Amino acid sequence: MTSALTSFYRSLIRHKLFAALNIGGLALGIAVFLVLYLFVRFETGFDRWIPGADQLYVIQETYHMEGYPETPSPYTMGAELDHLHADYPQLSGTRFWPLTTIVRQGTANNREDLVAVDPNYFQLMGLPVIAGDPSRALADANTMVITQRIATAYFGAQSPLGRMLPLVIEGTSYTYRVGAVIADNRKDQSYTADIYVPMNRARFGSEWFDHWGSTSLITFLHFPDPAAARAFQTELNRFAERRVFGENMKKGEWEQSLRPLTAHHLFNAGDRAVVTTLGAVGALTLLIAIVNYINLATARAGLRAREVAVRKVLGGTRRALVRQFLIEAVATVAIAALIGLALAELAVPFLNSLGGLNLGIRYWGTDSIVPPLVLLVLLVGGIAGLYPAAILAGFRPAAVLASARAPGGGKAGARLRTGLVIVQFAIAIAFAIGTTVMTAQANHVRAADLGFRRDGLYVVRSLNTGALLPEQKWALMRAWAALPGVSHLTLAQNAPGDQSLTNFSSINRPGMQGIRSPSLMDIRVGEGYFETFGAHLIAGRLFDKARPADDLALHPKGSAGAVNTIINRSAVGLLGFRSPQEAIGKQVEGNGTMTIIGVVDDLRFRGPREAISGTFYRYDSRPLNDAFVTLRYAGDPQRMADAVEATWKRIAPAEPFNGRTVEENLYKAYYEQDTQRTRLFTMGAVLAIGIGCIGLYGLAAFDTTRRIKEIGIRKALGASTRDVLQLLVAKFLRPVLLANLIAWPLAWVAMQRWLSTFDDRIGLSPAYFLLASAIAVLIAVATVIGQSWRVARAEPARALRYE
Amino acid sequence: MIQLNAIHRAYRSDEVETTALAEIDLTVAAGEFLAIMGPSGCGKSTLLNILGTIDRPTSGAYLFEGEDIAKVPEAQLAKLRRDRLGFVFQSFNLIDELTIAENVALALAYRSMPSREKRERVDAAMDRVGIAHRRNHHPHQLSGGQQQRAAIARAIVGEPRLILADEPTGNLDTENGAQVMDILTRLNADGATIVMVTHSPAHADIAKRTVHMLDGRILSAVRRAA
Q1: CB-CB: which of B46, B55, B110 is closest to A718?
Q2: What is the spatial distance between Cα A332 and Cα A267, in angstroms, rounded to a whole number?
Q3: CATH for B2-223 (3.30.70.580, 3.10.450.50, 3.50.50.60, 3.40.50.300)
Q4: Closest-CA residue in chain A for B111?
C-alpha cells in the first residue's frame, strides 16, 4: 500500500502535464456535476421537506373550451371545501387564500404577503414553529401567525407573542394579535406567506366566494396515501355531476383533478424538461470527464509499460499490479473530487446570485454531500482504474521490452480511445448546438415584435389594491399625464407582464351555425389604451370616448343595445371571420351584445411560451378596479420612475407604491427564469467542451510523444512542419468529425422539443448546427496544433535520438 | 559537393555543456564513397546528422553544392532533404503501421508527381534491392537484412545525389551485411555520393576514403586508389 502510494506520488510528479490534465479535467467535471446535482436536488426537493406535504393534494381545474388554455389551474372557488365537507364528512382539507394587505405601523405602510387559512392549516402543513401554537392561534378570529421575518421587522428583539398589528386587508382595516411565530419561508417552498389569519368568509369573501368557475383560493385535500387520493378522483367527478354542472358550468367543458403538492413546483412540463436537461448536462459532463480520465490513463499506461514489464520480470503478480493501478486511480479521483468540491463551493454563491437559487453544500445531516461524493470517487476510480489496470497487467513483458516503440495498448487500445473521443465530442458538440440555439432563441425573444414598443413604457402596479378612492385615481392620472415627457397613459385591467383578473367569455355569432363558440379573453380598458401601447390597427377604428356606444359604463348589465368592442387578430379566425375587414360592424353575443368596430394586431403581454389568446377589449370610462396604469414617456427612465413615485407619494401617501418599467416587468414575470436556466446550461456546456478539449490535448500530447520517432523519420525524408501538423491533426479530426454525425440528430430532437415549449420561437436552422460544429472543430484543431507544434518544428535529429 | 568549415556542435543540458564536434573541416566531392570510423560517442552520428541537415551546427559553415545551409530556413531544408538526400539508419527506422511499399513510398509522399510515376519508382527501387516480393508485408514480419534493404530502397527511391548511411550494417549478420555493402557499392558506381558511418574496418575498406574520428575531431584520412 505504502509503496503503491509512493509510486503514485512519483508518477504524478514526473508526469506533471498528464497529472494536471487528468486531475484538472476530472475536478472540473465533478464540480459541474456537483453544482447541477445540487440544482436538480433543489428543484425536485420543493415542499418535500415539510412534514405532511406528501399527503396533501391541490384541487386543480381544467377547462376544455376552444380558445381557452388547457393548462390546469390550481385555484378553486372559495366555498368548495364546505360543499365537499357536506357530501363527505370524513374528508380532511384546508384552504390557502392570498389577500392584498398593507401593514400600517406609525407612518410606514408596507405591503406584506398575507393569506387567510383554515385553522387546521398548520396541522396538515407541518411548517416549523418557533413560538406559540399556530393551530390554537388560528382558532381565534383576531389572532394571526407570522414568520420570524415579520416578527423582527415590526417588533424587533422583543417577544412578538400577544402584540398587536394593524392591517389593511383588501382595503379594510383590522387589528390582529400575534398568536404564534413560524420559521421564515424557504426558497424551496411553493406556498409561502408571511402573515396567516383565520379563514373568515364574512370578512373577506365577495359574491364570488360561492360561485362555481371563480378562482379565489387554493384548496388542499389530505389523504393518508396515494391510493386514497386516486380513489377520491372519481368521487370528484361524481361530486361535479351532483353539485356543479348546470347552466353556468357544462359537463365536458370543465373538470377537477388532484395534484400532489410535492409535484406542484415542477408541474409544468417545460420546467420538468429544464430540470431533466440540466441534470443530463451534469451527468454527461461528468461522463466526459471520466472518459478523459480513462483515455489519458490508458494512454499513459502505455508509457509505463516498460516499468510494468520490469516489475513483472522481477516477479510482480498480476494481482499486485492491478491493485497498484486501482489505488492510483481512486487516489487521483479523490484528489480531483476534493478540488471539484472546492470549485463547486466557489461557484455556488456566484450561481445563487446569478440564478436566483438557494443552493448550498451541506456536509452533515440528512442531505450531506459526503456519501454521494465518496460513492462517486469509488465508482469513478473503480471504472477509470480497472481498464488501464487490466490492459497494463495483461502486457507480455518480452514483447514490451523488445519493442522499439512505446506501446499504446495496441490496436484495441487505440480504437477504444478513438471511440471515446467520438463519444466525448458528440456530447460536447450537442451541448454547443444547444447553447447556440438557446442563445439565438433568447436573442429572438429579446428583440421580438410584441405588437408594441417595450421601451419608454412604465407600469404602476399599486393601483391594483382596491384601497384607493376613485378621486385619488383620477388625481393621480391627471398628475402623471402632466409630467414632462409623458405622451400617453392608460388605466386598464392588464399591462405587459401584469394581469390581475383573467376572464374568458364564450362568444358566439348570431345566426352562425357550425362554429363552436370560442372562449375569448375579456379585457376592459380605459382611455388611450391602444394609443399608449402603439398597437397596430388592422381594420376599423379605435375607441372614441365621445361616442356613447363605445362606453361600457353607459351600458350597465341587462340594458338593451349593443356596446362596441375591439378584437385582436387571433380572435378574427376563432370567430370564423375570413379577414379582419369582414369582422367590422358584425355583432357577437356573450356578456351582452357587442358590435366589432376595430381589429388590432396581437399584443403579447405575457411570456414567449404562452400562446396569445383571442381577446376582445371594451372601453370603460369608470375608474376600473384591479387595474394598472401604463405610461408612455420619452427621456431618462430613472428620472421618470422617480417622478411617477413622487407624484404617488404626494397624492396617496398612505398607500405603498409599486411600479417599474415594462421591460423590467416582463423580465421579472417571464424571462428571468429562462435567462437563469440558459446561463446554467451554457456554463455546463462550455465546461463540458473545455473538459473535452483537455482530454483531446492530453491524447494529442500522448500520441505526439509516442510518434516522435516517426515524425523524425518523416522529416528526415523531407516532410515539412506543415506536412507533419497535417498528419497529426487529421488523425484527431476524423473522430471529431464523426462525433458531429452523432451530435446533430441528438441535438435536433432535443432542441426541437425545447423550442416547442415556446409559442414565439425561432425555426431550427442548420446554421446553428454548422456554427456550433465549426467552433468545436476549430477548438479541437487548435488544441491538437497547440500540442504538436513544438514537436513538428523540432530538428529531426533530436526526434531520432529519442528512445 | 560538400564543404564543412570549422563545424562546432555542443549540447547543453541544465549545467553541463558537452562538445560533440570540435572544429571539423571536411570536404566531400561528388561521386565519393566516404567511410567515417571511430569509437562510440566520438561524434560520427552527429556529423552525419549535420550533413543530413536534420541537426544544425552550433557554429561553423556548411556549404552544400555551394549553398550555405546555416542561412536556409527550415522549410527549405525539408525540400532539400526531400529532393537531394537519402538516409539509411542502423535501426532501419521503418514505420510499423505501414507496409514495406508504403514505407518506401514515404520518401516520395511529400513530392508532387503523378501517382503512377511514384508507383513505378517504388517498384524499381524495391527491385533494385531485391525485396519486391515483400511489398505488402509489415516491417516486423521481415528479417533484419530485409528491413535494411527496404530502408535502402526508401533512401534511393527519390534518386538523391547524396546517401547518408548511419551504421547500415550494424544490426546485421555477416551475410546480410555483405549484401547491403554490395548494394551501396553499386549505387556509388551508378553515380551516387555516399557518406557512411561504420564500426567495421572491412566495410570501411570498401569505401574509397576513410576518416577516423575521436572525441569530436577528425584524426586522419586514408585515401585508397580508385
Answers
A1: B110
A2: 41
A3: 3.40.50.300
A4: A718
